[in-house]
Structure formats: C-alpha cells, structure tokens
Backbone:
C-alpha cells in the first residue's frame, strides 16, 4: 500500500526558495559564460522563473492563495487546472499585479520590462540585445538578492557566489560606437524598449532598481605595487564626473535610513501590532541574530548605539504575526 505524502506549508515554501535561488544563480552563471551566445534569452526565462517561485514562496508564507479559482454558488473554491490536472498557479505578471505584492514599484517595472521582452523573443529568434538591456538584468539580479535576503533569510543570498566577469580585451573605438548607436538592434525590440521606457515616470526610469547602470573608466595605478580595482566608483558631484555623458546614471552613495528600537516599536504599533514592546523587539532580533554584521540589518555608531536599517522591518512584522502581537 502506497502512503500518500503530505507536504507541509514550510517544506513547499523552502523548496520554492531553493529552486528560485538556483534558477537565478543559473541565469547569472549562463549570462556570464563567454562561450554561450544565447545568454540574454536564457537569463530572461530563468530569472522570470526565479522571481515567480520567490513570490509564490512569499504568498505561501503569508497564507495568500496564489492559484486560479472560481467560487461556486456556495462559496467553495473551484480551482482552474491544466490539461493534465495540475492546479494553475499565478504567473509572474499576476503575482506583480496582486495588491498585496510586497515589491516596490520600480522593482515591479523592471520585471514587467523583462516579461515584455520575453514575449517579443519567445516566438522568434532575435540577436544583439545583450548590451542594450544588460542594465535591467543587473537590477533584476540585485533586487532578487535583496528581497530574498530581507524577506526570508540571508542564507538564501547569492551575492557571495557571484563576482565581476573578466574580459579578455578592452573595448575598441568601433565597439564603443556600436554600443552607443545600437543600430542593428532588432526593430521590434528597439520599439518595445522605447515604448516601455517612455511610459515610465522619471523617478522610476532613473531608479537603480529599474536599471542598474555603471560607468567603466580605464584607469592605471599611480604607484608600483599598488592594487587596482577593475571597477571604481566615483561620486556624482566629483570633478572626475564632470563632462561624463548625462545619460549614464552615476552611482551615488546613499545614506541608509536608520531607526532606533523605539521608532520601530512605534511603527509596528501604528501598523496594528498593538501588543509589541521593547522586550518583544529584543527577542526578535536576538532570535534572528540581527546584529550579525554579515546580515547588514543595522550598524553600530560611536561604539555605543545600534541603529537598524529597513531590512529589519519585514522580519519584525513576521515575528509579530507569528506571535500574534
């Protein structure tokens, strides 16, 4: 007699997270593989799967039904099913349109952009799109790592497994001109990019969560034996930045918002968690090892006062829900 296995909510959620993480890792590793030419298309498909599984895990954690269904006259759920009997779950676009979706608007727009590109390429071959939309790929990857780390656990982070791709040659003038002009970009892709970007609010278009753009500058060290990084970051208002093309988004060092425990407790009370107090807050951050520097949930200032970043907030909310505060 075969015993049917009943999986718990937690086991399915963890499996979704694990496969989501592996899908994104695979997407990045394939994109960075110099021997593969089908990289953008593969990255888009795998990253969309990664985000779909990740949001399914989130909705499962929040006990939100992410399946398609209709209600019978008696109020009973009748689930939509595939041709072979599997329950139909939400695709990524439906996950993003859900009013309880936790993602910021610029993160959503980044994913909707990639979904649109997938629609353009899935039924016909395309070419030469890697450089035209690589900034969206980079933003997608960073957004994924940030969300899975803060909403679930830093052990799911992929940042420690990735590094800057090495190049075998420097950019020549013809290559630079080709990158700037994008004259041989497929017309349907070019039209889609222009149409999508034109409809965005300016703040979303300029957000690094929508498209993460960096400026590469050839640089040599000043002294023998001095280490030199492949990528250097410069302040947007520095003399070095003057004269750079303004179409590039210079990376600005942004000060993270900081919170004292009192502010977080008051914030949670306003959100409806009326029973929370400083003791609950302390129990929460100790339970998750919140002051571990590797988790980057806060910072010690002046060797005395600990301040918390935004990343702690969803973890506190989860603690409040779990303990019915």
Residues:
């Amino acid at each position: 007699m075969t015993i049917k296995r009943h999986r718990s909510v937690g086991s399915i959620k963890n499996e979704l997270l694990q496969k989501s993480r592996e899908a994104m890792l695979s997407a990045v590793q394939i994109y960075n593989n110099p021997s593969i030419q089908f990289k953008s298309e593969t990255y888009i498909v795998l990253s969309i799967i990664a985000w779909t599984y990740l949001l399914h895990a989130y909705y499962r954690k929040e006990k939100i039904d992410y399946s398609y269904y209709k209600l019978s006259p008696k109020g009973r759920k009748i689930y939509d099913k595939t041709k072979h009997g599997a329950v139909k779950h939400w695709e990524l676009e439906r996950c993003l349109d859900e009013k309880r979706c936790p993602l910021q608007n610029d993160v959503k727009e980044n994913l909707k952009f990639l979904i649109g590109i997938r629609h353009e390429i899935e039924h016909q071959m395309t070419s030469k799109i890697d450089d035209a939309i690589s900034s969206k790929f980079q933003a997608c990857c960073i957004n994924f790592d940030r969300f899975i780390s803060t909403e679930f656990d830093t052990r799911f982070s992929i940042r420690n497994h990735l590094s800057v791709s090495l190049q075998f040659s420097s950019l020549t003038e013809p290559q630079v001109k080709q990158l700037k002009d994008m004259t041989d970009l497929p017309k349907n892709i070019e039209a889609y990019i222009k149409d999508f970007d034109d409809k965005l609010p300016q703040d979303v278009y300029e957000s690094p969560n929508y498209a993460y753009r960096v400026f590469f500058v050839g640089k040599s060290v000043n002294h023998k034996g001095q280490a030199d990084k492949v990528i250097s970051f410069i302040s947007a208002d520095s003399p070095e930045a003057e004269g750079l093309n303004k179409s590039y988004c210079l990376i600005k060092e942004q000060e993270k918002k900081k919170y004292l425990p009192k502010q977080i407790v008051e914030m949670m009370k306003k959100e409806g968690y009326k029973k929370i107090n400083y003791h609950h807050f302390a129990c929460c951050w100790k339970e998750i090892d919140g002051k571990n520097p590797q988790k980057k949930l806060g910072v010690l200032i002046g060797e005395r006062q600990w301040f918390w970043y935004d990343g702690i907030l969803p973890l506190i909310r989860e603690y409040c829900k779990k303990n019915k505060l």
